[in-house]
From TrEMBL, chains A, B:
Source organism: Thermogemmatispora aurantia
Pfam families (alphabetical): CofD
GO function term, MF aspect, one: magnesium ion binding
Domain of life: Bacteria
Entry protein name: LPPG--FO 2-phospho-L-lactate transferase
PANTHER family reported for this sequence: 2-PHOSPHO-L-LACTATE TRANSFERASE
UniProt keyword list: Magnesium, Transferase
Keyword Magnesium: yes
Length: 310, 310
């Protein structure tokens, strides 16, 4: 069994490669839910939906989120009713949020709803939300504590990052199956997702970090920082705000206490010795998933490297 | 002040005439909410929305409900998730239900939400839901007790009507302002809406019928039955099921205990003596609202007749 810890776009694209290299039924994705937020009273779980839409082949490739060729008629009308419209939710996408909200109000857990959606989209890998308990990633800034979506989408990452707070973390447990999956996996792969808010929120859950330290699985991470900058999203601002070096080395330091293999891009080959000095072996390869071939190549390289590391 | 008791399409069209004859600020509509139902966890209030959309000029004239030129992308996606789609909710229309559901969950009352929507659509008449408490009109049939929308929309009125039950009625009170409006009005007009399930639900609320019997207002009703058949909807099936004659006379009997003026179509002029024998004066006029002129004409005739009746 291969376990992938994933955030949104980077995680979903990495998973696309993995499920073409390993039978999907042998893959478990553990997905960040720290970005979840209510919009218009509906529960939106952006990273779960990005993973499902991407693997189902219906994602809007241009954005990396949402459903392809979607319309925005509901939101346009809600705007007429005075609602904010900074978080774009297409009409077909809203059906997912309406469905999820209905099921949650009917007493289903996020795990159950995620599994139902997975099945409805015809996917055979296992997808687990990181937790069935609410954890809300907030960014401490000079204008106050902002929900991650407000920081990133509404205010376009313009505020200085002074800290990250996972609200609700103390009361949260990993979702059923998460720790077992980490313990029983052959390999645990940390997707090239934001190490602070996508992977970081999963690692912050009670027991996750300890389980990764103790598991017999080979743990590999792919750096989302290439050539000193993230391929997408605000990982640089968040890492810098928390005093991390914005580099593959900085990412490796976030994971050093449990990491067996660090996967970095050829552009960053010079960082390999410094990363190896932290403990993990280093795999230098092409990590930029510019097309399907590149996704398959990266997944194959990472999995081969894990097999060799055993 | 003119008060209009209204259901959906017939009530909304009659109100269109009234607000062109009387300043809208002097009109209060009391609207049936017995047809309300949850769809996909969202609170849908069909008659309120029909009245608002119609008076705001955005209604889909072809159906009489919904917003003109709306799309059905959310519902199409919900259908893919296994949901029923027998009650058509357009995308822009769904924004209303999302907004209403959000407000109700935030603790607002149906009256408050109705008034907010009225204002958002730029309307200056007063619109009151009949009650802030849940009342759900059900039809007793050989296949069991069906919610009115299931009886009418899902099963297309195919079941024999054995009775009508307003579930929740015992615990329901008229919405704030309803009884006061009936007491203080110059005229109370019962729109040409279904006498059993649209007007009947309002009349069934504690105190409404008694207040109509006691009010100094002139109370007039427009028959929705013309030439022995309803212009729209299943009023004939419901009346027959409850043992009422399907005619303007049958409608007049439903209201006889408080009615001052019964308005019937020219086609039904021969019924005038029998109706007058019940008590009310009869106004014979053209009641079919085929265009805006006809709506204005009907409203003017009804109001003149009320003024004469004082």
């Amino acid at each position: 069994m291969i376990v992938v810890l994933a955030g949104g776009v980077g995680g979903a694209r990495f998973l696309q490669g993995v499920v073409q290299v390993v039978p999907p039924a042998e893959v478990t994705a553990i997905v960040n839910t720290g970005d979840d937020r209510q919009f218009y009273g509906l529960h939106v779980s952006p990273d779960i939906d990005i993973v499902i839409y991407t693997l189902a082949g219906v994602v809007d490739e241009r954005h990396g989120w949402g459903i392809r060729d979607d319309t925005y008629h509901v939101m346009q009308q809600l705007t007429r009713y005075g609602h904010e419209d900074w978080f774009l939710l297409g009409d077909r996408d809203l059906a997912t949020h309406i469905h999820r909200s209905l099921r949650l109000r009917q007493g289903r857990t996020p795990s159950e709803v995620t599994d139902e959606l997975r099945r409805l989209f015809g996917l055979t890998l296992r997808i687990l939300p990181m937790s069935d308990d609410p954890v809300a990633t907030h960014i401490q800034t000079p204008v106050g504590l902002l929900h991650f979506q407000e920081y990133m989408v509404k205010r376009r990452c313009m505020d200085e990052v002074q800290g990250v707070v996972f609200v609700g973390l103390e009361q949260a447990r990993p979702a059923p199956g998460v720790l077992e999956a980490l313990r029983q996996a052959e390999a645990v792969l940390l997707a090239p997702s934001n190490p602070i808010v996508s992977i970081g929120s999963i690692l912050a859950l009670p027991g996750v970090r300890e389980t990764l330290q103790e598991t017999s699985a080979t743990v590999a991470a792919i750096s989302p920082i290439v050539g000193g900058a993230p391929l997408k999203g605000p990982a640089d601002k968040l890492m810098r705000g928390l005093g991390c070096e914005v580099s593959a080395l900085g990412v490796a330091r976030c994971y050093a206490d449990f990491l067996d293999v660090m996967v970095i891009d050829q552009q960053d080959a010079a960082l390999a010795p410094a990363i190896e000095a932290l403990g993990p072996r280093v795999l230098v390869t092409d990590t930029i998933m510019r097309d399907n071939e590149a996704k398959i190549h990266l997944a194959r390289e990472v999995l081969h490297s894990c097999a060799r590391a055993v």
